[in-house]
Structure formats: structure tokens, C-alpha cells
Design goal:
The protein has 468 residues and is an alpha+beta fold. Helix content is 63%, strand content 7%. The chain has 17 helices and ten strands. The chain is globular.
């Protein structure tokens, strides 16, 4: 029987105790901890903990403990409760800033930490947008569709504010000031402002502009707080922060971020219409390693930018093929390893999540520990991505109106330049291609050929993927 309370208690103990935890967040499958002292983590014991599927970022201040869907919610809540109980005891001795060097992956994880808390709203509003689109196209419930449209689009209309809030929170500023500066981007009044000889448009620069604006606001706020006495700090720091960062946003950041956002949209369209199958092979084949490293969430700003510009992201359906390739690979392992009862039980329990696009249980429970099946799963993802990319080359784009769901869960969110029906058919074809290729590649190359008889199962290569 699952005991999430015991898991939370053990995770806290093995990560250095409550005093070592600076921040707690979670996504769909992972508990994300910001640590004061990364060396205090007992990585081996943490990996061996029942219920823990994997550990990412050991030795760095940003630790991710893979727990799987559902479990992560209750474990995170229990960890937060225990931290709140001990907050008073640790308040007098704040943990020092870790001196661990922040490499590029760590910077990407910080970007991911900004956007991960927004995923539930992106999922919910995206699904409602998909349902509303189906009702509108079918002509059903005309009295309800305007209300659904307002509910579904409200969050996206103000997403810059939430990004600004999260950015300031992540980088040590006052969250509400980050949100206030980012709100300038979506305010209708910016249409009256001229920058670089052109009128700005509300929303120009989108989430990229909001991120840059809030980051600048945080820097200005910290600069002011270090130079103003208490009485003046209360009045002048927020005023100077909002004024300076707001003017910089209007007369620089919005224009620059808008140019970058346009380049992202143009680049994505060019990539698919010019090198469709190749782009699909690369994106579908390399996405599982990104998930394994916990860096896939750093793509959220790109997805969100494409959704703001075009109404859908053409990258997510391609990347979703990676999970389908892993499902095919896991099915092959299930067929071949019929004598390994524990492994087959793991596969049976993880497959439903895998079919819905949650790949971590299969990654850390099956393919990665075995080694070769992880590589052959990537081959399946590449084949599915190539399938979808081929149709993009023919002019049939497949996109998702929101991010978060994958696998079968992505069907309600699918659309494209030719409408939802062709997009759904192409995506389904890509899934089947990835399933079949991942299955066949794993059967053919996922096991070492040893001294086996008709009754002895094949021996999997248990060398971790990427090791020598």
C-alpha cells in the first residue's frame, strides 16, 4: 500500500532535513527542491527509496525527485506541511546562498521553475479551448460557447502577468512587483506608445517580454534596497522599480522580445515546411534525453510563444512522439522478459501513464535501467516525429492549442492549418508509427544475444544509456 507520508518524511531526511530546503515546487511528476547545501543529499539512499522513480540534479542546488503523477501532489503537500511546522525554528538562521557554479542546465532549470507552476492552468484552459472549438464547429450549444471562450482565453490573455510574478519570485524579487511590470505588456494603453518609430501592440513580446521585464525589475529592486534606508525604501523602491523597469519595457524590451518571438514563429514554420521529416526525426529522437535530464520544461516559453502567435504550437506533437516510442519499447520488453515478474509488473503499472504522455515512470522504471531499450525508444520517437514532419513538409501542420498533456491526452487539443480533423489523423498515424518502431527496434536491438535456450529469457543490456 502506498504511504505518501512516509515517502515525504524519508525524502526530507535524505535531502538534509527541513533546514536544507529553500524552496519546494512540483510539476506533473517531479518534486522540485531548491537546496542550501547540495552535498547534504544522500543520493544513493534517495534513489533506493520505495516510490522514487529517479533523481535528477544531484550535486546541484536544484534537485528533482521523480515520483510520478498523483503521488507527487500528496508528497509535495506533506513536505510543505512539514516545512511550515519547522519554519519558525529555521527563520533565525537562514541558509547561505549555495556557491555551486550555475552551468547552462541549471539556468534552464530556473527558467523551467518559472513556468512549471503555470502548467495546470495551461492544461485546463487548453482543454476547454479544444472543447469549445469542437462545439463551435459543430454548431452545438451556441449559448454556452461564448462563455467557454471567455473562460478558456482569460488566462492566456494575462499570462504575461503570471510569468512576471513567477520570474520575480524565482530570482529573489518581490513577486507582485514583477507581475506589475509585466502587466504593462498586456495593457491596452500601450497602443498609444511609439517605440522605434512604430506603435506598440498590447501583448507584443508576450511571455519573453514579461520574463525580461520582471528580471530587470528584480535587479532594480535589489539595487534600490541595498542603498535606501528603511523609511525611504518603503516608498521609493517599489516606485523606482515599476517606473524604470516599466519605461525600459515600453521603450526597449517589448520591441526586442516581439522581434525574438516573431523569429521563433518564423523559424519553427521554416523548419517544418523545409526540413519536415528531418526536423521530426531530430526532435522526436532527442526529446527523451531532455526529459531524463529534466530540461524539457525549459521549452515551455517557446511553446507558449507559438500559441500566442499562431494559436497552437507545432513542436509539441513532434516531441510527443518520444513518449510513444517509449511505450512501444516497453511493450517489447514486456513480451521478451516474460520470466521477470517484477519488471513486467512495473511495466503494467507504468503503461497507462505512458499512454497519456507521462513518460517518467517508464524512463526510470524500465528503459533507462536496462540501457539499450532507452536508445531504441528514442528510435521509435524519431520515426513518429519523422512521420508527422513529413506531412508538415506537404503543408499539413499539426499543432496543440495548449501544453502539458501528451500521448492520447493530446487529442482534444489538436488542430492545424487545415483544421482539427486532419491534425488528429496525422497525429494518430505518428503515434502508431512510434509504437511500432519502438517495439520492433527494441525486439531487434534492445537485448544482448547471450547463451540462451528456448526456455531461457534473453538478457537485457543493463548498462545505463550514455555510459561507456
Amino acid at each position: 500500500m502506498r504511504n505518501d507520508t512516509a515517502t515525504a518524511s524519508a525524502v526530507l531526511a535524505l535531502t538534509g532535513g527541513p533546514a536544507n530546503i529553500r524552496q519546494v515546487t512540483h510539476c506533473l511528476t517531479r518534486l522540485r527542491l531548491t537546496l542550501a547545501d547540495p552535498a547534504a543529499v544522500d543520493e544513493g539512499a534517495l534513489r533506493a527509496l520505495p516510490g522514487v522513480l529517479g533523481v535528477i540534479g544531484a550535486g546541484t542546488p536544484s534537485l528533482q525527485v521523480v515520483l510520478g503523477p498523483g503521488v507527487v501532489d500528496t508528497v509535495t503537500a506533506e513536505v510543505e506541511r512539514r516545512l511550515a511546522v519547522g519554519a519558525e525554528r529555521s527563520a533565525e538562521a537562514p541558509a547561505p546562498e549555495p556557491r555551486t557554479k550555475r552551468a547552462a542546465p541549471a539556468a534552464l532549470r530556473r527558467v523551467a521553475d518559472i513556468f512549471v507552476p503555470l502548467i495546470p492552468a495551461l492544461i485546463g484552459c487548453g482543454i476547454l479551448a479544444g472543447v469549445n472549438g469542437l462545439l463551435t464547429n459543430a454548431g452545438w450549444l451556441p449559448g454556452l460557447t461564448p462563455a467557454l471562450a471567455a473562460i478558456a482565453s482569460g488566462f492566456m490573455a494575462l499570462i504575461a502577468v503570471f510569468v512576471g510574478y513567477q520570474t520575480a519570485k524565482e530570482f529573489g524579487g518581490t513577486p507582485i512587483l514583477g507581475g506589475a511590470v509585466a502587466a504593462v505588456i498586456v495593457h491596452p494603453g500601450v497602443a498609444k506608445v511609439t517605440a522605434f518609430g512604430v506603435h506598440l501592440s498590447p501583448g507584443q513580446g508576450g511571455v519573453l517580454g514579461a520574463l525580461a521585464a520582471a528580471l530587470l525589475a528584480t535587479r532594480i529592486e535589489k539595487w534600490c534596497r541595498g542603498r535606501l534606508p528603511g523609511a525611504l525604501d518603503v516608498l521609493f523602491t517599489p516606485t523606482v522599480t515599476v517606473l524604470v523597469a516599466g519605461l525600459a519595457t515600453l521603450y526597449g524590451l517589448m520591441y526586442a522580445a516581439g522581434a525574438v518571438a516573431t523569429a521563433i514563429g518564423t523559424g519553427a514554420n521554416w523548419l517544418l515546411t523545409t526540413t519536415g521529416p528531418f526536423a521530426g526525426l531530430v526532435l522526436g529522437g532527442l526529446f527523451l534525453p531532455l526529459v531524463m535530464l529534466g530540461l524539457h520544461q525549459a521549452l515551455i516559453p517557446i511553446h507558449t510563444t507559438l500559441i500566442e502567435q499562431q494559436g497552437y504550437t507545432v513542436l509539441l506533437p513532434l516531441l510527443a512522439m518520444a513518449g510513444a516510442g517509449q511505450v512501444g519499447g516497453a511493450l517489447a520488453v514486456y513480451v521478451r522478459m516474460r520470466h521477470d515478474t517484477a519488471l513486467r509488473t512495473t511495466i503494467r503499472s507504468a503503461l497507462p501513464a505512458g499512454l497519456l504522455g507521462v513518460g517518467e515512470p517508464l524512463i526510470y522504471g524500465v528503459s533507462l535501467p536496462l540501457g539499450r531499450p532507452f536508445v531504441t525508444a528514442c528510435v521509435g520517437g524519431a520515426a513518429g516525429g519523422g512521420f508527422v514532419g513529413f506531412f508538415a513538409l506537404l503543408g499539413e501542420k499539426v499543432g496543440a492549442t495548449a501544453i502539458g498533456p501528451s500521448g492520447w491526452a493530446l487529442f482534444p487539443l489538436l488542430t492545424g492549418n487545415q483544421g482539427p480533423a486532419p491534425a488528429i489523423a496525422i497525429y494518430a498515424g505518428g503515434l502508431l508509427t512510434a509504437y511500432a518502431t519502438g517495439f520492433a527496434a527494441t525486439l531487434a536491438f534492445g537485448f544482448r544475444r547471450g547463451t540462451t535456450s528456448g526456455t531461457t529469457p534473453p538478457v537485457p543490456d543493463r548498462t545505463p544509456a550514455g555510459s561507456t
